Amino acid sequence: MLEIYVxxxxxxxxxxxxxxxxxxxxxxxxxxxxxxxxxxxxSVRLVVVDDAADAADDWIADHVAExxxxxxxxxxxxARCLEQGARVLDPRGRELTNDGIGAVLxxxxxxxxxxxxxxxxxxxxxxxxxxxxxFLQRLDGMVQRARRGR
Length: 150
Description:
Oligomer: single chain
Strand content: 15-25%
Radius of gyration: 15 Å
């Protein structure tokens, strides 16, 4: 059965994920390094992993299945999930695909190098209401496509 996995540490769209998951009756697993408040429902699960680097990423990558939906801003995790046939959406509503993940990884590495050299000092733009709306719309569409794909 289709499941949603959320890389939950710092994820700004937890409520939106729960809205879509509830609408479609989907199980949702939030994976984090610390405890989170989540509604008490049989379909909502929290997995707390240790605070080792990439522990949450490793847990998600080890459990995700083909056509599952993963919500993450972590590009290397996205690439790992795509390799397993999952669908990936970032918190701003950008769908990451096998066709584009190589360019996204390269851009991420380039920006990290530029930041390390002091050439780029800013980060991403602030998360806004329109990002939340875009995410909600894209997640709903992604879930519909994944359900048809199963």
